[in-house]
Amino acid sequence: MQLLTGYAFRLGAILILILSLSSQAIEPKNLLGFGSGSTEILARQNAFQDLASQIEIEVKSTVIAKQNFSEGQGRESYSASIQAELATSIDLPLLGVSVNVSGNNKDGYRAQATLNSVSSLPIYLSRIEELSKKLRQGLDKVRSVYETSNEEPFLLTLQSDQLQLEKYRKVTQALGIEVQIDWQAQLGALQARLLAISERIDSLDKAAEALSKDISVSSIYVYPPSAPGSAEVTNFAALICDTLRSKLKVVNDPEKADYVYRGHYTFVDDGLFLNYALSKKDGQVVQTSIARVLPQAYRGIQIEPQTSDIETLIQQGFVRSGDFRIEATSSLGKRDLLFRAGQEIELLIKMNRPGYFYAVEHISMASHSVSLLLELEPDAINKRRFVGYVNADDVNKWISIGKFVVKSPFGIERLQFIASAQDLVDKLPEAKWREEDGNFVIGNSIADNIAQVQTRGLGNQRRQNNPSQNAGPRAVEYFLTFTTMKD
After folding, report:
1. For residue 346, what is the enclosing H or E element?
2. pLDDT tens readout for residues 134-165
3. Residue-wise over 219-257: b if at least 16 C-beta within 10 A, else e?
4. What confidence tens digit (pLDDT) does each residue in 291-320 have?
5. What's the rounded Cα separation, in Å, for the pair 233 and 406?
6. In whole angstroms, what is the distance from residue 215 CA to residue 157 CA?
7. Is the CB of residue 318 less than 8 Å from the CB of residue 60?
8. Rounded distance, CA 231 to CA 262, Å?
């Protein structure tokens, strides 16, 4: 097989760098997704979803590995810088994917989706070059619309193209190619200019109006905007999401949506700056919208995440999934999750190889916090009740670990999963039975409990700085974060 060594070349206005952590050659890369279903179409869809998820994991691990976190850098800036990078790592476009399907109507179908660097990279690089040229021409015309009524819509169009370009770049990054743009600083100035010219808005209703104007499509799933440095859904994010939903043609299930509307907000001198992007399910950006919100619009409403320190701990401990992985999701997906009282949630896990797993639920509430070791096999005895097992027949399938109805206490919940090819029964964290509510409680702070689970379940792997030294992790972890509210 021909190997690609580390080098750089120029394609028009962009500089292409083949990523290499050492002087060793890099092989052409395959990223795989697996899916199963009762029909061939369903199996294909699930394989595409799995492939997209694996690319996001690959990108996330690369982004976090690149962060030069040290004691001299504050936790807040660390988390915020990661969040900014990961904002463009969701709903990624998959181009040049090949799919193989096997099975029949009786036994069901299995599909494998493959994104191959040799066949797909030329497609992505062509799209990047095309968008790069378009953006370059747009930047040259900025002065012609300066301080006119056309400036904001013109800049928003450029921002949409920039977001699409970043999505393409994230996929090429996962395939081992770093794309650098000579005039990236000029693109960065777009945000500053949009912030400067955007109208100051004094109510959440007006903010939702600004974010929903000119959107005429239907079948949209709206997510709450992510807060700086956290996966937590704040009260402000929940209110904006609800108000937005009242002004758009929405659906209640992301699986039934044709479009997704995701956003994030940042703190600025005189309030908050909201940024949303409307995308098709295939990762193509349709448009972006902004709103600059003054403090009087959210007075008395929680805007800052309550648990950003825990989020930083999670990011620092992130382990690349590698050849062995576990994932978790809910009936409404895995990101920007907000559940209301009375709503039913189903939780599911998937592993790509046979193995064992256990789960710890970390709940942060206004008055206190608690960590619970979850019973996965209630009919088993002793410690076996806490350890699940995925057999060969259930590999690469979503497996339900239970349904529950949201009720008090409400707060931010983080499900921490540990999985291993080896039995984990002796790796469980220490937990004590609490008779009043029937839970098994781990008795320290959440930060200490997360660290204990990582230490016992992962050993020294989470501190390994050179992934090439690992023959493949014996255990991996995954976090699913969601927020529950009374109303």
Report:
1. strand 344-351
2. 988 888 888 888 888 899 999 999 999 999 99
3. ebbbbbbbbbbbbbbbebbbbbbebbbeebebbeeeeeb
4. 999 999 999 999 988 765 555 555 544 445
5. 16
6. 14
7. yes
8. 13
Token digits of residue 447: 């930060």
What pLDDT, in 10s, does the model give residues 81-132? 555 555 666 788 999 999 999 988 888 889 999 999 999 999 999 999 999 8
Q: DSSP letters along 235-246, please?
A: HHHHHHHHHHHH
Position 199, amino acid: E
Between CA 425 and CA 389 the distance in angstroms is 11
Q: Which residue, chain included where needed, has tokens 């998959």?
A: 94
The percentage of residues in the chain with a pLDDT greater than 90, rounded to a whole number, is 34
Round to whole Å and give the CA distance between 299 and 236.
10
Contact 449, 356 (CB under 8 A): no
Question: What are φ and ψ of residue 466, in 5° steps?
Answer: -115, 95
Most confident of 5-19, 52-66, 227-241, 286-300: 286-300
- Crossing angle, helix 308-316 and helix 75-86, to 10 degrees? 70
- Could you give the 3-state DSSP secondary structure of residue 7? coil
CA end-to-end span of the chain? 58
> Are 358 and 386 in contact, with CB atoms under 8 Å apart?
yes
Task: Give the model confidence (pLDDT) of 9-25 as tens digits.
Answer: 444 445 554 443 333 44
- Structure tokens belonging to residue 331: 């009936």
Nearest alpha carbon to residue 243 among 222, 219, 264:
222
- At 431, the amino acid letter reads A
pLDDT score for 276:
96
User: What is the amino acid identity at position 261?
Assistant: Y
